[in-house]
């Protein structure tokens, strides 16, 4: 059902967001105030009201959330579409034990909204493939998700 609003993630969504899902993250562009949208996969639900993600230490997202912490994560899965609305902050300049220069961002959720259109049900979830060395991609995934959960 569209526009069903909760104040936290369901246990089912927490389990769904344990890593490797492609989601979009919208922030407010620090330069011009327009929406700035990224596709990310290094995101994990820590609990029913907290998300953590890894982002390149040079990403414009870090500047955006310093100026305005409001963000929305869009999740397509579990048969529906969800807007996870919250406040983001950089909690670490660099994730420990991760070979890549990745900053840690934490999002405290304020609302979880089912945004699927009326009468619609998602039947296939988005999928992606790594286009570089699969073994190296797996190594990075393990490092990043371990760091996000610390």
Describe the structure.
This protein is α+β, with helices and mostly antiparallel strands and 150 residues long. Strands 1, 2, 3, 4, 5, 6, 7 and 8 form an eight-stranded antiparallel sheet that branches. The protein is globular, with a radius of gyration of 15 Å. The longest helix is centred in the last third of the chain and has 15 residues, at 134-148. The model has no long low-confidence stretch (mean pLDDT 95). The chain has helices at 11-16, 60-67, 134-148; strands at residues 4-6, 23-28, 35-40, 43-47, 50-56, 70-77, 80-92, 102-114. A hairpin with a 2-residue loop joins strand 6 (70-77) and strand 7. Pfam families: PNPOx_N. InterPro entries: Pyridox_Oxase_N, Split_barrel_FMN-bd.
Which percent bin holds the helix content?
10-25%
Q: In this structure, how is the largest beta sheet organized? A: 8 strands, antiparallel
The CATH superfamily name is Electron Transport, Fmn-binding Protein, Chain A
Strand content: 35-45%
Distance between the termini: 35 Å
In the CATH scheme, what's the topology name? Pnp Oxidase, Chain A
User: Helix-strand pattern, N to C?
Assistant: EHEEEEHEEEH
Specify the overall morphology.
globular
Please provide the count of β strands: 8
Average pLDDT score: 95
CATH class: Mainly Beta
Structural class by helix and strand composition? alpha+beta
Poorly predicted ranges:
none
The helix count comes to 3
What count of structural domains?
1
CATH architecture: Roll
Rg to the nearest angstrom? 15 Å
Protein name: Pyridoxamine 5'-phosphate oxidase N-terminal domain-containing protein
Organism: Tumebacillus flagellatus
Pfam families: PNPOx_N (PF01243)
InterPro entries: Pyridox_Oxase_N, Split_barrel_FMN-bd
